[in-house]
């Protein structure tokens, strides 16, 4: 069973990822938490956790880890300094630590629009930070998948999506469906070394991700 470190495990999307992995026969989740008081959530779920902060040293968090899902993020609503510290510098630090630890795959939760941050003045700093982290991952030599969803909602997931390397349209997608896409991306042959965008759509998640992997 592969051990999966979830960075941003206590966030809305990260928690959904943990729930899916906790019911998996192939993967064992390890929640990366920033504060001691967050451990109770994962103790109650019988999920292992490790204490680490993206703004400090993180190498110890990768011990014994096979793959990483990076689902941490400032959400674009925090100040510039925090956004750069988490979405850019924190992600880059985690990518470097993962490479050092020889992890088999790094799955990054990015954001639609990260390829052209200047087109969205409201979120330019956030998308720019995501872009730099994505570029660093692509150049790292690690096997990777970069998922760029549209606007995230808390609606119930329908497991129906529209995926493409570039969708050329705006839209929404539920955190449930994004969590499933992140978990499916852990499978070695699927969307390997690919960057893709995701919105809610009409194709099943499984079929859509297999089609994109061809």
Automatic annotation (TrEMBL):
InterPro entries: NAD(P)-bd_dom (IPR016040), NAD(P)-bd_dom_sf (IPR036291)
Gene3D superfamilies given in the database record: NAD(P)-binding Rossmann-like Domain
Limits of the NAD(P)-binding domain: 8-189
Membrane-spanning parts: none
Entry-linked PANTHER family: FLAVIN REDUCTASE-RELATED, UPF0659 PROTEIN YMR090W
Stated name of the protein: Semialdehyde dehydrogenase NAD-binding
Organism (species): Gillisia limnaea (strain DSM 15749 / LMG 21470 / R-8282)
Lineage of producing organism: Bacteria, Pseudomonadati, Bacteroidota, Flavobacteriia, Flavobacteriales
């Amino acid at each position: 069973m592969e051990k999966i470190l979830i960075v941003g495990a206590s966030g809305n999307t990260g928690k959904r990822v943990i729930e899916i992995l906790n019911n998996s026969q192939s993967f064992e989740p390890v929640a990366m938490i920033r504060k001691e008081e967050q451990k109770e959530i994962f103790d109650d779920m019988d999920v292992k956790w490790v204490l680490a902060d993206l703004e400090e040293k993180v190498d110890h968090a990768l011990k014994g880890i096979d793959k990483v899902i990076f689902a941490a993020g400032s959400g674009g609503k925090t100040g510039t300094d925090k956004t750069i510290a988490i979405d850019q510098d924190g992600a880059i630090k985690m990518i470097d630590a993962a490479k050092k630890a020889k992890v088999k795959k790094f799955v990054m939760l990015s954001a639609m629009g990260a390829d052209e941050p200047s087109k969205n003045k409201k979120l330019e700093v956030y998308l720019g930070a995501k872009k730099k982290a994505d570029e660093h991952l692509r150049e790292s030599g690690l096997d990777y998948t970069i998922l760029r969803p549209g606007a995230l909602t808390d609606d119930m997931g329908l497991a129906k999506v529209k995926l493409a390397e570039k969708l050329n349209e705006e839209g929404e997608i539920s955190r449930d469906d994004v969590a499933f896409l992140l978990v499916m991306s852990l499978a070695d042959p699927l969307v390997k070394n690919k960057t893709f965008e995701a919105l809610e759509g009409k194709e099943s998640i499984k079929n859509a991700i297999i089609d994109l992997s061809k």
